[in-house]
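[job 4471] stage=fold_predict status=RUNNING
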Amino acid sequence: MYGSSSDRQLNDFSFLLKLYKAAAVYEINELKNLCKEKFVCSTPKKNNVFQLLDAGKLLNCESLIQRCYKILQVKTAEVLAAQELCNITPAMLKTILELPRVSFDSEYELILWVLAWVKSDSLKDSCKTFKEILVDFLPYLNFLNLTAEEFAKLWQNRRSDLMSEQEGFSIFMNIAVPGSHPLPSWCPSTPKQRDYRDQNFDSLSSMNSIG
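[job 4471] inference complete, writing structure tokens
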């Protein structure tokens, strides 16, 4: 029974991260090395990739970090679907939004998912409103890559929470006629380059079988 429990704990990467940090504090090198070997030899999958990414950054292990990023780029939607919304942290979301490629079909689909996460987080944290949570992520969302129809749908559904009326008007005008109106201070004039599902994924297609 003890062995079975130990095996489960060795496959619990959140537990291993805590164990590694404790071993580092108390200078238990044998335990540190055991945890490190487990992290480095593990395959990132949709249900462990965020924990292994944290481990890779902690260990400064570039190969593990890059393996995690590949999974996050090729299987973004699948990774997020494998998590409960309430368990996805702001740091996880920021990691996704900083990726150069995501497996969503479009920026519109990505924004819809972000808004669903913000709604979930606002229900969890009664100290912050939907708009107060969203504001930190607005600069990462490429509203200018939406069609006028897509932006109109977002605006119609969440007008009071999404942004001010002036900001919404400005975004809409710049989608319709680029450069026609001053953009909100948080909105970059050149949207972040981001590829979506089936766009430039050929080089990463070999990763599709993982997870």
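[job 4471] summary: The mean pLDDT is 90.
[job 4471] exit 0
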